[in-house]
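Progress narrative, Year 2. Work on NUDIX hydrolase from Catonella massiliensis advanced from sequence curation to structure prediction during this period.
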Amino acid sequence: MGKITNIKKQTDNRFLNIYELDNIHKSGRKGKYFVASRAKDIDSLKITTGKNNPDGVIIYALSGEDKDKVVLIRQYRYPINDYIYEFPAGLVEEGEDYSEAAGREIYEETGMRFTPISVPDGYNRPFFTTIGMTDESCATVFGYCDGEPSHEHQEDSEEIEIILADKDEVRRILKEEKIAIMTAYMLMHFIKDEEPFGFLKED
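Result:
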């Protein structure tokens, strides 16, 4: 297996930084690899700690009287200079439980109140997002939303539309719109499962 011989921090930004890794390939050839990370310093990198603490949280929430609508946001994102459909999401603050982060983030982005549900072990632990480029990991929290959507608590830097989508609208979104990949996978569950969150039940 490859080996990392040195790590150098290349940038000093608030939310995201680039780290340069000197490495040796399995053949013995030396090389370099570049990793984007939310870690503030080398000692906090997952490479260094060996721990997978979640950087962020993603919220898969259902709403409506019959819990037959999924809560989505349509958000402007600079990397594509366009709007994309996503689940509400955000960063986990230091010392914050990711279930607490889920409630805070969904309220800030949608104005709705969130009630998480219990899921089997392994369903909401942190998983890596785009491992070829970043060590970022996110936990998914599942639950239900109540209340009327509102833009009141969004930050000035956020351009977010709140979407409560039924199955017909989700089918259209999957066919026609830009969607984050994890959101797309979960929306496929949403349109196929007769029972909301049925896929979360253990056999």
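The chain has two domains: 3-49, 56-200. The first helix runs from residue 46 to 49.
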